[in-house]
Amino acid sequence: MISKLRNEKLKQWVQEVADLCQPDDVYVCDGTRKEYDHMIARLLSAGSATPLKKRPNSFLFRSDPSDVARVEDRTYISTPSQDEAGPTNNWIDPGKLKTIMTDLYTGCMKGRTMYVIPFSMGPIGSPISKIGIEITDSPYVVCNMHIMTRVGTRVLEALSTDGTFIPCLHSIGAPLEKGQKDVTWPCAPMEQKYISHFPDENLIWSYGSGYGGNALLGKKCLALRIASAMARREGWMAEHMLILRLTNPEGRQFHIAGAFPSACGKTNLAMMQPTIGDWQCECVGDDIAWMKIGPDGRLYAINPESGFFGVAPGTSDQSNPMAMDTLKENIIFTNCALTDDSDIWWEGMTDKAPAHLIDWKGNDWTPESNRDAAHPNARFTAPAAQCPVICRDWEKPEGVPIDIFIFGGRRATVVPLVNEAYNWDHGVFLGATAASETTSANIGAVGNLRRDPFAMKPFCGYNMGDYFQHWLQMGDKLGTKQPKIFYVNWFRKSPDGKFLWPGFGENSRVLKWMCERVAGSVEAEKTPIGLLPKEGDLDTTGLELSPPEMKELLQIDVEAWKNELPDIEQHFAQFGSRLPERLKKQLEEFRKRLG
Known about the structure:
By secondary structure, the chain is an alpha+beta fold. It is 28% helix and 22% strand.
């Protein structure tokens, strides 16, 4: 199989990995449906996959209980100096890390097949796309990569004989001796798991985990950690952002990119169904945006993925009907519960749980069981093309022009429903200080304030102080073509602890105001934190919101904001001399506005 590869660098690398990892066979993926079906058949015969009779061509997988999520404390950014990785990343010296991992990789694929997955992040041939090659010993990874990226022969053709690619090496770290019986979810112990990035070499090495972003190396590893470093060098942007198109009743299109930490309704917003008359919403992407400045000077975005790798619990016909409609066929489910009639279930899918389930560990479960039936991080892998509201231009090679950036977080108090940045630098300040109160989905005690700049804290592949500077420089390049920047908080609560804003499709009302600001059809009110909607400008027609509730939603408590200043200072201090002077200036201007 290796001899068939036409790209000499690729051929050489694949041979080097085969010599190191010592697989029984090498297979180069062609991306066909026949190949996908063959991989699924292998997983079914191994007992790793359970077919779901209620959903055509859909399968349930159960991971090892030690391998259920991204492992941030085993994820490394390996740069020549620790300062280049910055305070938000785990760092190990590249030489030391490669020595450790080379030892682990030696013979790690014995008894297994080594799969070579040529994949394109973004439409094949797009000027914004990049080609990666993932080597793995996991057929589960092959199947997921088929859905999440564009895989196969067409990618190799685009790579040609001399094209460049991002090498992504993955192993589950579970060699098989002759005659040894395999397990349904092979992986290495936690202390042997390494998800390693070498940004200076555009190189990814992952070992020991077969789960999600640890193993699907096009996901966070390439699309954000490596791509963010490439984007800085090459003058573009790789962001943890949804992309949606909103069309007003007159037919004008607005493209919005939004960054939110976990548990803030990002996927729900990406697939939103507007509740305001004659406004239409289409999803371009739910997780990642790659953006370059086009010939007209505007910023153009593509979704580099071709699938959704979504958190299942909490997804329902009420919270996200478009996601539920996407999940009817051709889906890989991981760590969900299994119903007696061969379907899947998770917490929040229905008001009432079924009387009996097989839980994510394979055990009997009833509503009396004192545990979750599905893992809190249970996932679905779904083709984006199946989403009923997928944008007709979602695979447009040149991308869509971005009009609006949104940042946000989950805050019960202090932060209003929406405010607009005064200018680009102020918008970067809003993104750089973005914060959420922690939930069970985050690390740390529930209710603590956690700064997650640009929702990129776990995903920035270099020093975040330099990342802030890159945002400022991109604004300089865009000049008068800069998108407007807004900050939202759907989660403000009343003094008695009830959510004030209904959220979900009603968020379209806030987006409508943003579009009207872009169009110049409404004025805004100046406040110390930014520009807010004037009374009556936010369309609340048909909403059961009292004037006091609306006032509370847009309330600016100057003293509460003053109390935030020490935390912002402490947050900025960690970046030392790498913190841009322009952000220090923004902080001082903010302090003056608060009085």
